[in-house]
Amino acid sequence: MKKWIVMIAGAMLLGAINSACVGKEKTKSDAEQQPDRTSQILGQFSADSAYRYITEQLAFGPRVPGSEGHRACRDYIINRLEGFGADSLMIQDGIVTAYDGTKLPITNIIAGYNINAPRRILLAAHWDTRPWADKDHDSGNHSKPVPGANDGASGVAVLLEIARNLAIKDPNVGVDLMFIDAEDYGDDKGFSDNEDTWCLGSQYWIKQGMPPYHPENLPVYGILLDMVGGRDARFYYEYFSQANAANPTIKVWSEAENINHNDRFIRRVGGGVTDDHVFLTRAGIPTTVIIECLNDQTQSFPPVWHTVDDDINYIDTKTLKAVGETVLNVVYKEKRY
Ligand SMILES: [Zn+2]
Questions:
Q1: Superfamily covering domain 4-333
Q2: Is a pLDDT exceeding 60 seen at residue 202?
Q3: Lower Cβ count inside 10 Å, N or C end of the chain?
Q4: Domain spans of the chain, in order of start
Q5: How far is ligand 1, taken at its centre, from the CA of residue 65, in Å?
């Protein structure tokens, strides 16, 4: 999807108001947690490996729920996680009903690392792709599926490369990697009254009680990755993230600054987006989203968003590297308790 909740003019205004709030929260958080300001890159995030995981997903074709490519990609993600030594694997199959009445077979997957740690964090990405390129400049393409190199495969690829690292070196904190289905089957007509038509996989998971968690052992926060591989992408604070999940938002953007990725992570609000982080936050896991939502050219999502041009040619390994190194550093700096 996803849809602008806050138009740019509004976002600027809200940004001005809320950057003050973020600043205040930052001071409090810093004092409490004494963040590690070292600029060492922790782990070995390979952007080339992440790029390969994107090409492997694209080889299945579109990953629209119910399609052959979707089934193949489901098995691919599970196989990769098994190969990367996940301590636990939760595979949640289900059926959801899309806004147009279509029944969609979906699968949410959660891989656990360091499962005996008393404190956990959640990293998430959606793995499905949109069935319609309804933002394509050519209306003849509107009923075709998007390739989903950036919108779908990029977030999954970064998570898989993080999994490969976690298999080599344990984090101090418990880390769960969640691959969410059916994010992108939503109704893009109208403006603000169709939020629930998006993010069907995360909504299903929440309705089913958020397995494998119990209410008393939810992850302390979440980081959602969506459209994290675009050419020259820059990532601004997302409106709902900085308003409702300030702690992980500050952690991520501060860490980007520590390791000199502040050319990519900009500490200003870029706009508001409906995505899985909104539902996860409401369900009790304050979650920030890293998403390109203030592209220089469009002043919104990247130009290939929901078009047939969201293919491998748009993927930028420098972007994957900035995001992957930043998130992996957050993970490895996180304390056990
Ligand atoms: Zn999308």
A1: Zn peptidases (3.40.630.10)
A2: yes
A3: C
A4: 4-333
A5: 14
